[in-house]
Amino acid sequence: MNPADTTAKPSSLTHAPSPIGRGKFCEVSLTLPSLLWLLFFFAVPAAMVFAIAFKTADSSGGIGSSWTLETIVEVFNFNYARIMWRTVWVSFAVTAICLLLAVPVGYWISRQDKKYKNWLLLLVVIPLWTNFLIRIFAWRLLLHPDGIIRTALVSIGIIPEDVFLLNNMTAVIIVSVYTHLSFAILPIYAASERFDFSLLEAARDLGAGRFRAFCLIYLPGIKRGIITAFLIVFIPALGSYAIPDLVGGIDCELLGNKIAFRAMANRNLPEAAAISVVLACMIAIPFIAFVFGGGRKRADGGARAETEAISRQ
Amino acid sequence: MSAAKGRFAAWKSTSLIVTIFVMIFLYMPIVILVAQSFNESRFGGKWAGFSLKWYEALFNDRGVIEATLNTLYIALTATAVSTVLGTLAAWVLNLYKTRLQKFNYGITYAPLVMPDILMGISLLLFFVSLKVELGLFTVICAHITFCVSFVTFVVLARLQDFDFNLIHAARDLGANWRVIIIKILLPVLGPGIAAGAMMAFTLSMDDFVVTFFVGGPGSTTLPVKVYSMMKHGTPAIINALSVVFMALTFSVALIAQIITRKRV
């Protein structure tokens, strides 16, 4: 597949008749390389997850041949319900904190002089150039029992000697906020940049208080940026695996950790698939709610691509 | 304007304070990490003197060197293939408005909203079912898959600004396709394609979760290496490794900056 695609491309491009001509043959032959790749490596595997969730496991860690409903039923038992609930509230907490921080930052940057804006944005983006795992590692260093933060806090006497900062839910939330914050700031900044600030003047002239004007004019005005920021943080947070694994404790496991555990350490692929189905459904809920409720077709992945694009340029 | 200044002063100062706090929050871990990599002692509760010993240990570690080579090999291959596929996809998505393209758009777009872990597990199940041995090949296929969508949307954004009358005009003036591609398409679309390729490269270098799921023996990348170091006893060379890795990503990002600045 791989070599065939790369070699097929240049020839099909040069032999293509006018791209302005609407030849069906031309369209199909240019569409097929990427379409086939994504069908084969994205659509088929995604469909397989749903199918395998209803398969039995075989003793060697593979996938059995018969069908069963047991796995998916088991995933809905009390133990998993607790982890699902934990995944949801942690993701909400992370998203809320990110938005609370991102709105003032986005506002402030959009109000600065044109000369400085790009530099300020670059400052927001540079931490993203650091590898995801290295950012987690940096926090492990900071929060380590002998690390700089705990040593300082204990010596000032803010926290007692027996309090540890690592391997608990607070650490998971702090590090998740850290890894997602820049992604939340960018769309909010972009929306704030398009916001017409004379509307705020008008609201104040008409007697609205500062806080009222902010809540009733500014926040609805940057609604699209907020929705994008919400989805950009919330959806990956639901699927997070590495952060709870590396800075969380025993009772910090999220759905992602359960999937990895079932897929790797305690090999039971059908159960891993069943948990993935649950996670996929959880992700579909906010997504569908915003796409249909908000009536916005692009409050989402196109936006994620744009944000990634801004962040990496 | 001056009236506005006084009026919104409270917002300005609040948002300024939050911004300063956020900047400290964003940069403190990185600064500490870099400083720590030169520290004689391990955890940086205190400074025990400047030392390059972690770097020395790092460059003598065969596993790290192998992981670096794997990372670059995977990233380069995935970038080459996904840039070709993504550019083609962007080209047809921009040009044709048929039902096939609607479907094509949907399937290109879906991976963008799928969390890493779901992509990882679905590809793992896929390869296991097909009895493909996990290793470099499976990792490269997986990386191409998540890079294609990003490349497509970056190039598509540039294509939407492209004026197709240029091609009409060139053809009317007798230019053949070779000339059109070399003289018009590449110069105009080149920066967009380069931006897409750079993005694919950094995404591939950055990926941990998908690689972790579909990787096997012999396909350890730097992120996977960092992960297993953290899991097994935290050797202090991770500090130095992180700084070297950071320098690597920074140079790629800087090159991307320079290339995209030159855009027409």
Task: Report on this structure.
The complex is a heterodimer of chains A (313) and B (264). Chain A has helices at 2-15, 24-52, 70-75, 78-110, 114-125, 132-143, 148-156, 169-194, 198-205, 210-221, 223-238, 242-247, 255-263, 269-293, 301-311; strands at 55-57, 63-67. Chain A is an all-alpha fold and 313 residues long. Chain A folds into two domains: 2-52, no CATH class; 73-311, MetI-like fold (Orthogonal Bundle), CATH 1.10.3720.10. A two-stranded antiparallel ribbon of chain A has the order 1-2. In chain A, a hairpin with a 5-residue loop joins strand 1 and strand 2. With 264 residues, chain B is mostly helical. Chain B has two domains: 2-37; 54-261, Orthogonal Bundle (MetI-like fold). Helices cover 77% and strands 0% of the residues of chain B. Chain B has helices at residues 2-7, 9-37, 53-59, 62-95, 99-109, 116-129, 136-159, 165-172, 177-206, 209-214, 222-231, 237-261. In chain B, helix 2 packs across helix 12, helix 4 (62-95) packs across helix 9 and helix 9 (177-206) packs antiparallel against helix 12. Chain B is globular, with a radius of gyration of 23 Å. The model of chain B is unreliable at 1-5 (pLDDT under 50). Classes of the chains: A mainly alpha (313), B mainly alpha (264). Chains A and B meet through helix 1, helix 2, helix 4, helix 6 and helix 8 of A and helix 2, helix 4, helix 5, helix 6 and helix 7 of B.
User: Which fold name corresponds to the CATH topology of the largest domain in chain A?
Assistant: MetI-like fold
Radius of gyration of chain A: 24 Å
Number of E-type strands of chain B: 0
Determine the fraction of residues in helical runs of chain B and give it as a percent range.
over 70%
Q: CATH architecture of the largest domain in chain B, please?
A: Orthogonal Bundle
- Give the CA-based shape of chain B: globular
N to C succession of SSEs of chain B = HHHHHHHHHHHH
- Give the termini distance of chain A in whole angstroms: 31 Å
